[in-house]
Amino acid sequence: MSTDDSNLEQLAACIVSAANAMRVGFDGMGNKQLVTLFELLQPQLEAGSVRKRLKLQVVLSKLFEAQKRHDHIGIADCLEYELGPALGFPAP
Asked: What does pTM read for this prediction?
């Protein structure tokens, strides 16, 4: 398995873990997962095509807005239904 594949698997797991934590009110755990997610996402932002980077920037902007509102369900939805598909993962 290549490093890229491993990174994508970790990203997918992190998205699911953070979304699940946010949905059940474990915002502390969810926020820790978001930090890890952003660290794993950095190479995607640096190496992706311009189109992919723009798409990710739009999704991340929505995610940050939901976080500022303390909208944990909105964060979970954004992770699963927007960020995951923007990275090529199927929505749940």
From this structure: 0.88
Spell out the SS3 assignment of the chain. Answer: CCHHHHHHHHHHHHHHHHHHHHHCCCHHHHHHHHHHHHHHHHHHHHHCCHHHHHHHHHHHHHHHHHHHCCCHHHHHHHHHHHHHHHCCCCCC
**Low-confidence stretches of the chain (pLDDT beneath 50):** none
Please report, for residues 13, 50, 53, the alpha-carbon distance to residue 44 in angstroms, rounded to integers and kept in the order given: 16, 11, 8
Domain residue extents for the chain: 3-86
